[in-house]
Amino acid sequence: MDRNRVTVRYAKAYVEMASEQGTVLECYRDMSLMLASLNNYEGFRGFIVNPSISHHEKMSQMIKFFGADFQPLTMKFIEMIFSKYRQEFFIDICRNCVDMIRRLEGITSATLTTAYELDSKLIDQLKSRFELGMKSTIELTVNTDPSLIGGFIFTIDDEQYDASIASRLSSVKKHLQV
After folding, report:
1. Boundary residue ending a domain (104, 129, 147)
2. 3-class secondary structure, 24
3. Averaged pLDDT, 125-141
4. Which of 26, 113, 130, 149 would bridge 165 by S-S if both were Cys, CB 3.0 to 4.6 A apart?
């Protein structure tokens, strides 16, 4: 069976069940955490896809690590994936779940890069302004890059708002060289 079809089917079923139960945002949090764990911890990903480890052992470890924090629906979903021997598709299923819920809930990912760490109130103000302009909920990742000198770069979807001192200085330099 086509890998993409399998992952989309499982993800769609999960999102529909979460929607019926009214736990979409909680399930989004679960799947986002699971996806981050799979992407950031090579040993964890290896454990999940290892065919020599029984699905019972995998589930007992999942319950140990995530059982207290995850929605019951998420835990049942993970158990079903393991019992159907679909663990090789698990990371793609998680990614599809996150993407589907983002589209369903109107959540957009964005990155704010600043020259130095900003106060959380200022970050929230910038985020709110962009959310109003985009008419969307923004999931914000904040980075620092001292080479910006000052200001910020806000990247959302394929658009970039560059209000950094470094880019202004570069623009002035180009203008003077002409």
Report:
1. 104
2. helix
3. 89
4. 149
Q: Which helix (H) or strand (E) holds 92?
A: helix 90-105
Question: Which pTM does this prediction carry?
Answer: 0.80
Beta strands in the chain (DSSP E): 107-114, 137-144, 151-156, 159-164
For residues 8 and 90, membership in a common domain is answered with yes
Sign of the alpha-carbon dihedral angle for 167, 172, 177, 178? positive
82, 55 Cβ separation under 8 angstroms: yes
Residues 120 and 134 in one domain: yes
Residue that is written with structure tokens 């002035």 in the block: 172
The pLDDT tens digits for 113-129 are 999 999 999 999 988 98
Residues 37 and 80 in one domain: yes
How many other CB atoms are there within 10 angstroms of residue 164's CB atom? 20
Do 95 and 79 reside in the same domain of the chain? yes
State which residues form the domain around 79: 3-104
Query: pLDDT > 90: what percent of the chain?
Result: 78
Q: How far is CA 17 from the centre of its chain?
A: 20
